[in-house]
Design brief:
The complex is a heterodimer. By secondary structure, chain A is an all-alpha fold. Chain A contains nine helices and no strands. Chain A starts with a helix and ends in a 7-residue tail after the last helix. The chains are: A mainly alpha, B mainly alpha. Chains A and B meet through α1, α2, α5, α6 and α8 of A and α1 and α2 of B. Chain B: This is Anti-sigma factor NepR domain-containing protein.
């Protein structure tokens, strides 16, 4: 692949590099730093990319290696930045779904790193189990089991939060709102005709 | 509906409800997970990315 073609394809992947980096870092500024470094590293390594293979998986592998190899760097995942939380709330037309997204982010934070990454790549990034296994350097079966454990854990974390709400005096307004909106949402959801 | 029939439908209901609501919740979590990711891919790419890439391209051509 010539440089021009490589550059074009790499540029098209920037949004995905940013999204994957954001899921690893949790902080938008640190994530963009990481995504930029990964992009430049991919550019420098372009000679070793084999045309016809999956460029997205290849660049994700570079980004992930960068993230895990430089443990001291500031882009290590931190607790959700209050500014990010606020921006999510403000930028969202639907406050109940914004709060739900934040709950999900917090639940993701509670997962072990390997499970979180597998769930994000497969469940959010739309990568196949095979591509994800390639990126994470492990067997497909391992990825399948991580994704399934992650899904189960996320469901349990979110549910335990919901059930913890009842009979709790220190229930925050946001939590109460979330609880009510979620219930309303479930009730109003289109039910299958045979239900 | 007679008393017996209404009892039967009540005894069946919790299971079906639970599994339906579990499916709904899981689909919802899946949708939200994709949204977390798509919200970022839908953002405009900061100019810095492309200018860094151009710079890298130029300096590699000079070598």
């Amino acid at each position: 692949m010539d440089d021009q073609a490589f550059k074009t394809e790499l540029a098209e992947l920037i949004p995905h590099l940013r999204a994957f980096a954001r899921s690893l870092c949790g902080n938008a500024t640190a994530a963009d730093d990481l995504a930029q470094e990964a992009m430049l590293k991919a550019w420098k390594a372009r000679a070793s990319y084999q045309a016809g293979t999956n460029l997205k998986a290849w660049t994700f592998t570079i980004l992930r290696n960068l993230f895990y190899s430089e443990k001291r760097r500031s882009w290590r995942r931190q607790q959700l930045d209050p500014e990010v939380a606020e921006a999510t709330l403000v930028s969202n037309d639907n406050p109940s779904s914004a709060i739900e997204l934040l709950s999900l982010r917090n639940a993701l934070d509670e997962l072990p790193e390997d499970q979180r990454e597998a769930l994000i790549l497969v469940g959010a990034g739309g990568l196949s189990y095979e591509e994800t296994a390639e990126i994470c350097g492990c067997a497909i079966g391992t990825i399948k089991s991580r994704v399934s454990r992650a899904r189960k854990a996320i469901t349990e974390i979110l549910e335990s939060k919901m059930s913890g709400l009842t009979g709790n005096d220190s229930l925050s307004a946001a939590d109460a709102f979330e609880d009510i909106m979620r219930q309303a949402d479930e009730l109003s959801r289109d039910l299958p005709a045979d239900a | 509906m007679n008393y017996k029939a209404s009892q039967m439908s009540q005894s069946k209901k919790p299971d079906a409800d639970a599994s339906r609501s579990k499916k709904i919740r899981q689909k919802r979590i899946g949708d939200q997970l994709r949204r977390l990711y798509d919200d970022v891919t839908n953002e405009p790419v900061p100019d810095e990315f492309l200018s860094l890439l151009e710079q890298a391209d130029k300096s590699s051509k000079q070598k």
